[in-house]
């Protein structure tokens, strides 16, 4: 009914996250009917991104250069390496501004049932990165889910007896969290990991 | 922090309807990190759509050919012309399957305060289309909003005294509409336009 090339575009747009048939059609109409300039910008930026963005050979984050700007930044703290499981987690930590060391990005988390083992998430590349003699502390910043915890404990056992300290993100009550609405696990954990109040 | 080409892609994706900064970032990550094949498909289909999709010279709908498949279909009812204000309205009527005539697509509705007059919505092209001697009825299918009504009544006065009948979509209680939740205007209208019950 509508032109076949329009339908093909609608079908292609459905690969975007949480875009269904109706939304894809609205997007395609917007691009072809009302905002051809925007559509051309998407084509050119997406083409450039696809051809020029690869992975940083040190941390595996997206980068246009063989080594990403963060890994290339000599001002950061060489003693700390933070291991994250996704680029969004990497971004979240970097945007918090609380970490000055370097990162290593796993390609996801261990999930043996889905056939995702250490090799699939890039543990071999991590081993190479860990050879860096400057590293004094490795921070396991995988998420607090079952798979994230499994990944962290696998890495922890793998690094047992190594010369650097291994740490894990603290768990507890989030900022602004009302105890009343917090799940029991988190509350129990926060209680067990309670800190003595000091005067500093 | 992330590569500049990635940020440019995120900015470009924000031209899509109801896509903000967070969603655009998620889309860009999906395209570059996880689904490069999908990204390449978007580039190729969007490029093809931009270069090959124009407007039908008879009805102004999107078309890859000078005359769209509907206008080129000689089997449809030449006596009826349905005037719609957007491609989505056009699609909605066509998908209902209740109309077998031809369409004419206005580029929006009259909105004098925004400087959108008859020429901007393509009334001159409509005049050319209305020269077709086969037309017996013109159906004004603009939306039931203030601007839609204004557009319909402008067109109606423009066509006053012409050889064809001019009609308007019926207004009233929608299918499945509970009277209790219907607005007063619609209810009053439905009451005023009440139909005698016949036995056919």
From TrEMBL, chains A, B:
<dbReference type="Pfam" id="PF21175">
    <property type="entry name" value="RecR_C"/>
</dbReference>
<comment type="function">
    <text>May play a role in DNA repair. It seems to be involved in an RecBC-independent recombinational process of DNA repair. It may act with RecF and RecO.</text>
</comment>
<feature type="domain" description="Toprim">
    <location>
        <begin position="79"/>
        <end position="174"/>
    </location>
</feature>
<dbReference type="GO" id="GO:0006310">
    <property type="term" value="P:DNA recombination"/>
</dbReference>
<keyword id="KW-0234">DNA repair</keyword>
<feature type="zinc finger region" description="C4-type">
    <location>
        <begin position="56"/>
        <end position="71"/>
    </location>
</feature>
<comment type="similarity">
    <text>Belongs to the RecR family.</text>
</comment>
<dbReference type="GO" id="GO:0006281">
    <property type="term" value="P:DNA repair"/>
</dbReference>
<dbReference type="Pfam" id="PF13662">
    <property type="entry name" value="Toprim_4"/>
</dbReference>
<dbReference type="Pfam" id="PF02132">
    <property type="entry name" value="RecR_ZnF"/>
</dbReference>
<dbReference type="InterPro" id="IPR023627">
    <property type="entry name" value="Rcmb_RecR"/>
</dbReference>
<dbReference type="InterPro" id="IPR034137">
    <property type="entry name" value="TOPRIM_RecR"/>
</dbReference>
<protein>
    <recommendedName>
        <fullName>Recombination protein RecR</fullName>
    </recommendedName>
</protein>
<keyword id="KW-0862">Zinc</keyword>
<dbReference type="InterPro" id="IPR000093">
    <property type="entry name" value="DNA_Rcmb_RecR"/>
</dbReference>
<dbReference type="InterPro" id="IPR006171">
    <property type="entry name" value="TOPRIM_dom"/>
</dbReference>
<keyword id="KW-0479">Metal-binding</keyword>
<dbReference type="Pfam" id="PF21176">
    <property type="entry name" value="RecR_HhH"/>
</dbReference>
<dbReference type="InterPro" id="IPR015967">
    <property type="entry name" value="Rcmb_RecR_Znf"/>
</dbReference>
<keyword id="KW-0227">DNA damage</keyword>
<dbReference type="GO" id="GO:0008270">
    <property type="term" value="F:zinc ion binding"/>
</dbReference>
<keyword id="KW-0863">Zinc-finger</keyword>
<keyword id="KW-0233">DNA recombination</keyword>
<dbReference type="GO" id="GO:0003677">
    <property type="term" value="F:DNA binding"/>
</dbReference>
